[in-house]
# Entry
Amino acid sequence: MRSLIGILDLSTEEIDGLIRVAEDIIANPDAYREKCKGKKLATLFFEPSTRTRLSFEAAMYELGGNVLGFSEATSSSVAKGESVADTIRTVNCYADIIAMRHPKEGAPLVASAKSQVPVINAGDGGHNHPTQTLTDLLTIHREKGRLCDLTVGFCGDLKFGRTVHSLIEALSRYTGIRIVLISPDELRLPEYMQNKLDSLDNVTFTETKDLEAAIPDLDILYMTRVQKERFFNEADYIRLKDSYILTPEKLTGAKADLSILHPLPRVNEISVAVDDDPRACYFRQALNGKFIRMALMLMLLDIQ
Ligand code: CP
# Structure
């Protein structure tokens, strides 16, 4: 029995395999309609979500299985003081696989240690969000046809953005990756992540505050939301929240085949006027999240 807590739990070969299965699901959906017949997914969401929870649920339904769970801690017995460990042991009685989001970093790891069924980390605090990373990798692969030899700009909240940290770790395993970090000083990529990048031979990185100056070199622009829920001080959030707003004007110098990604939800950081640009991939990215989660659940349930 295997869980997925961080993206580094998967080998590069396994990630490539999941992308292959997801692309096969897209090409041959009928072949997968009954693969999870009789299986149940529990979605335990202690923090808000639209895409992750609903795409997990849609993924299980499209595989022929069923779904149970809760979408806020207040509707479970956690509100009465029940521990994560007891919640997981209980849910083990009812479900074959668990997707769990929790505000506390490490909570899904604790859950996996107590669980007899696979636990998938659907986001833990500012720490990890491995299925978003798989979604991002599938999107890049579908848009570009490769995961190597790419210049990737990460823009916005690089400090608290867990999707940024996981995607950088995953892309670092491929060759010819050039990373451009675009953020205000206060939201720079944490030093431990910069040190990791420094130690890798196959990845280079640069830092800038200037989004417009960086755009012409990029193959991928990964925009992020400033993570209000991770700030201790509202005044700091208000000062930083609109640091970057991508508009059609700012894309004037961009490559014709730039791919603009965003894990969503967005607040202000991409103007809605960008949505009709064919280079805007973020809603295709949200759709890809369902296909890669289908592939992941098949793998963790050991279903061919
Ligand atoms: N990208 C993402 O995790 O979205 P949700 O918070 O809506 O699940």
